[in-house]
Amino acid sequence: MIEYFQTGGAGDAGASTMASGRLAGNWGKTPDLLKYTVFLVEDDSSDRNMILQTLQRSQHVHNVHWFDSGERLMKHFVHEGYYSGTLIHNIPTLVLLDIALPGAGGVEILRRLKENPLTSDIPVIMITGSLSDEAARESFRLRANAYVVKPVHLDRVHEVMLKGWSWPSPPFRS
Q1: Cα angle vertex 91, ends 88, 92, to 5°?
Q2: Edge-to-edge strands, sheet with 16-21
Q3: Which position among 60, 77, 98, 104 has the lowest Cβ density within 10 Å, counted as fewest Cβ atoms?
Q4: CA torsion 80→81→83→87, rounded to 10°?
Q5: Mean pLDDT by 10 residues, the chain (174 residues)
Q6: Residue 65 near residue 39 (C-beta atoms within 8 A)
């Protein structure tokens, strides 16, 4: 069973709501220690649903918290997460971060995550609807682990999750 949480969504005062989805089949189960909590930051509901369906097929994903803006992600860290000074049980082991977000864009949110020593080691996959050399260059400069064009493919997510490698290798050097 994979759990989905909307955290701080539209019309929501910061509460989390949960819905469940089933993993395909019972074979190939992964021990809980190897399962990931993924934070998905995506404002477009169609793209978000497609990515959630993709993650549902992963035996390595335990739960997904999704945010419809970068500000809501950062608010979560301040009020419920690392920055709040309280122990939390939903620490992300991977962030999927859309480039084109309302308000602070994905590259700005990546910069904030990587500048803070409490969140700088969390792997981040930047996701985008169109490939931009400038956005890719800046994302890799800020230490994104991968930069992928939608639709998001599970093998690319697994490569970052399980090996910690960039996908593809950063094509740009500063």
Answers
A1: 160
A2: 16-21, 2-7, 61-67, 36-41, 94-98, 124-128, 146-149
A3: 104
A4: 100
A5: 51 33 36 73 94 88 90 82 55 90 95 89 89 88 90 81 56 43
A6: yes
Q: Which residues of 106-121 are buried (b: 16+ CB within 10 A; e: fewer)?
A: bbebbbebbeeeebee
7 and 72 Cβ atoms separated by less than 8 Å: yes
Query: Which residue bears the tokens 């169609």?
Result: 46
Structure tokens at 77: 């860290």
pTM of the model: 0.75
Domains of the chain: 2-24+31-163 (3.40.50.2300)
Q: Give residue 75's identity as a one-letter amino acid code.
A: K
